[in-house]
From TrEMBL:
Stored InterPro entries: ARPC5, ARPC5_sf
Biological process (GO), any one: Arp2/3 complex-mediated actin nucleation
Keywords: Cytoplasm, Cytoskeleton
Keyword check for Cytoplasm: yes
Tagged with keyword Cytoplasm: yes
A Pfam family reported for this protein in Swiss-Prot or TrEMBL: P16-Arc
Chief place of localization: cytoplasm
Protein task: Functions as component of the Arp2/3 complex which is involved in regulation of actin polymerization and together with an activating nucleation-promoting factor (NPF) mediates the formation of branched actin networks. Arp2/3 complex plays a critical role in the control of cell morphogenesis via the modulation of cell polarity development.
Entry's family note: Belongs to the ARPC5 family.
Provenance organism: Chloropicon primus
GO CC terms of this entry: Arp2/3 protein complex
Name under which the protein is recorded: Actin-related protein 2/3 complex subunit 5
């Protein structure tokens, strides 16, 4: 995937989140998997955490996760782990809530696929 495509995705996530269309923002953020370019990958993680940070309740998180397709679930789980690896305490709590919702919906296979992905 090209850098331009990822940048368009990030812009779309920002616009959707700014319009409080959080389900659509989460789907868009999860549409493309993490890229190789480290700086761009950090921007992707920030986009996901920005959306997650706006989801105030566990029900809102679960509703958002329930709308995802299997590939999007796997991508989101990858972003959860990337976000947790940033060791930012403020991000950890919402990311763990997303992790829980994803695991309930997609099962343990989602975790295995995220951890084993290259």
């Amino acid at each position: 995937m090209s850098e331009a495509e990822v940048r368009r995705q990030l812009e779309s996530v920002s616009l959707q989140a700014g319009s409080m269309r959080l389900n659509e923002a989460m789907r868009e953020a999860s549409r493309l998997g993490p890229v190789e370019n480290e700086d761009l990958r950090k921007e992707q993680v920030k986009a996901v955490t920005m959306v997650v940070g706006q989801l105030k309740t566990e029900k809102a998180i679960a509703d958002c996760v329930s709308a995802l397709e299997p590939d999007e679930e796997d991508n989101l789980m990858k972003f959860v782990y990337l976000g947790l690896s940033m060791k930012d305490a403020a991000l950890s709590s919402p990311l763990f809530k997303v992790h829980e919702a994803l695991t309930k919906k997609a099962g343990l296979g989602c975790i295995v696929r995220a951890v084993c992905a290259k």
